[in-house]
Amino acid sequence: MARAKKNLRKSGRRHPLATAALVGVGLLVTGAAYTGFSQTSATAEIDLESPATIEAGEKLFGANCATCHGMGSEGTPDGPSLIGAGAASVNFQVGTGRMPLAFQGPQGMVKPQQFTEEQTLQMAAYVASLGPGPSLPDSQFVQADSSDEGIANGGDLFRINCAMCHNVAAVGGALTEGKFAPALTGVAPTHIYEAMVTGPQNMPVFSDANISPQNKADIISYLKYIENQPAVGGMSLGSIGPVAEGLFIWVIGLGAVVGLTVWVTAKSN
Predict the structure, then answer these.
(1) What are the Cytochrome c domain coordinates in residue numbering (predicted)?
(2) Is 38 one of the annotated binding-site residues?
(3) Is 197 helix (H, G, I), strand (E, B) or coil?
(4) Rounded to whole angstroms, what are the CA distances from 17 to 6, 9, 13, 22, 28?
(5) 166 belongs to an annotated ligand binding site
(6) Whole-angstrom Cα distance, residue 165 to residue 46?
């Protein structure tokens, strides 16, 4: 009986490394949470018109952007002038990783961000101080609306103004000279809005006179709606359109039926 109790105590004893591992996990979780909270708080409190913010952005710009855009943002043969580009343009280009460019090409490619959100906003503040330009969007216009009316209006506007390049399903499409309209799935609402007001690369500018802020918000609502909808027809085939999809059915589908018929006939003979 005494031996059984002794064995029970032994089996319930913790491994010496268990406590150290538990403490290590706790420190990692606490540190990650603190870092995320600190960065979020700093971003939320940043003032784009503060001289300190503009000065910090100027230093970042001089170290990372001036080689192509010039020390005074006046532009060079390798990069356009940013005077009048506005905060929205910087937040879009840097926030999506398109800038700084990985290499010279037909257009900037999306890649992981090189700067934190706070640093991006500091550079946006500096560029905004150089001249008037598109500002960061109001938060009320980058919240996806779940109402049927807003989604329907956004769908109509998207098909009229955007689908010829981005495809009606927003999966992107090819343009000329190696350029392309990117897919819009997974893109942050803020960046979609900023693209509309700044017209990056091959995209036209949709000012508030062309598409009102509320209509821009409806377009965002439509894009987020179709992004979360399943392909009710089964395989979407990349949503490349009825002509290509019909050709696929005729060539692959009908070809398979003909091939099966020939195989069955040959086997029976």
Answers:
(1) 52-131, 149-227
(2) no
(3) helix
(4) 22, 18, 12, 9, 17
(5) yes
(6) 36
Phi and psi for 184 in degrees, rounded to 5?
Answer: -105, 5
- On whether both 89 and 158 belong to a single domain, the answer is no
Its domain, for residue 75, covers: 30-135
Q: The tokens of 195 are what? A: 């693209």
DSSP of 119-166: HHHHHHHHHHHHS--PPPPPGGGSSPP--HHHHHHHHHHHHHHTHHHH
Residue 23 domain-assigned (yes or no): no
Contact 210, 139 (CB under 8 A): no
For residues 89 and 98, what is the distance between their CA atoms, to the nearest angstrom? 11
Coil, helix or strand at residue 203:
coil
Separation CA 7–CA 10 (nearest Å): 5
Q: Give the separation between CA 142 and CA 193, rounded to whole angstroms.
A: 7
Identify the residue whose tokens are 């560029």: 127
162 annotated among ligand-binding-site residues: yes
239 in a labelled binding site: no
- Cis peptide leading into residue 100 (ω within 30°): yes
Tell me if 265 is assigned to some domain: no
Summarize pLDDT for 166-209 with one digit per residue, the tens. Answer: 988 898 888 888 889 999 999 999 999 999 999 998 899 999 99
- 165 has binding-site annotation: yes
pLDDT in tens, 109-125: 999 999 999 999 999 99
